Task: inverse folding
């Protein structure tokens, strides 16, 4: 019984590894934004995943076409094509070695352009769950050395709230500054268009393009840019230096200059 479960998890994990490889090459090829759904078990990630991507007639035309159920193509209102990743994990009652394996899916999410933290706002444990999710993400950030992508929150299961509570949360969501939020029901579709607009707004707001010249001593910076940004062009100069043009999320730009202060323009 438990063996069955472990086997299933192992297979899931293999799928994740495959997704990761496919996604990496897909991103390189297409430069399309990648959005990952994270959140506590039962928060409604998979329901939202299906709601956003399921009805999409173009799903089969995804350039990084894959039968993998955890990654799908969808359309943003003006940016167009994007990829959506569903994740599992945040399961606290699994044996430690399985939690370790689940981290692979979560590391996958660390490579996304945007994290969407899905919360079940109808659950009495919502706040504790959200904290647990943030703890896991912080751990991942430490373990992988990858900075967390920008994040927004989906306040899900609006349909289970009283009208008063829903109104109050909808109002509060509009006021959140640090982590933008939107009240949604993945079940009824309420708020989903607003969510797509928000995803797009954050993606658009969040990126800058920088040009820089790297010397032989800047190998680490170059690797960092490849890992964390979208390299638009890269060419060797006669001097032996490398000229790069890179698109970086704005918070990553700050992290880049913090880590490589010598490369910050005067
Ligand atoms: N009432 C209601 N139920 C939801 C909503 N979103 C998800 N659910 C239900 O919550 C349960 C868990 O959803 P699921 O998408 O599997 O959560 P996941 O573990 O985060 O992927 C399922 O029974 C869903 O039908 C919602 O907006 N409203
Ligand atoms: Mg799920």
Result:
């Amino acid at each position: 019984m438990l063996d069955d479960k472990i086997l299933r998890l192992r297979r899931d994990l293999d799928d994740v590894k495959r997704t990761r490889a496919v996604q990496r090459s897909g991103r390189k090829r297409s430069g399309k934004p990648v959005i990952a759904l994270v959140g506590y078990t039962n928060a409604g990630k998979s329901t939202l995943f299906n709601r956003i991507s399921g009805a999409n007639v173009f799903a089969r035309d995804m350039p990084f076409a894959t039968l993998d159920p955890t990654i799908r193509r969808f359309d943003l209102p003006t940016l167009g094509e994007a990829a959506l990743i569903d994740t599992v994990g945040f399961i606290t009652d699994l044996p430690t070695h399985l939690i370790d394996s689940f981290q692979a899916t979560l590391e996958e999410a660390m490579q996304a352009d945007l994290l969407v933290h899905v919360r079940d706002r109808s659950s009495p444990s919502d706040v504790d769950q959200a904290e647990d999710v943030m703890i896991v993400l912080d751990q991942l950030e430490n373990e992988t050395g990858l900075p967390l992508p920008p994040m927004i929150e989906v306040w899900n299961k609006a349909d289970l709230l009283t009208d008063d509570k829903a109104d109050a949360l909808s109002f509060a969501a509009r006021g959140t500054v640090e982590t933008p939020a939107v009240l949604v029901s993945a079940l009824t579709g309420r708020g989903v268009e607003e969510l797509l607009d928000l995803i797009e707004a954050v993606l658009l707001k969040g990126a800058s393009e920088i040009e820089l010249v790297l010397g032989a001593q800047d190998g680490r910076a170059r690797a960092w840019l490849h890992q964390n940004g979208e390299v638009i062009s890269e060419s060797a100069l006669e001097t032996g230096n490398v000229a790069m043009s890179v698109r970086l999320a704005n918070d990553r730009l700050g992290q880049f200059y913090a880590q490589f202060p010598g490369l910050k323009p005067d």
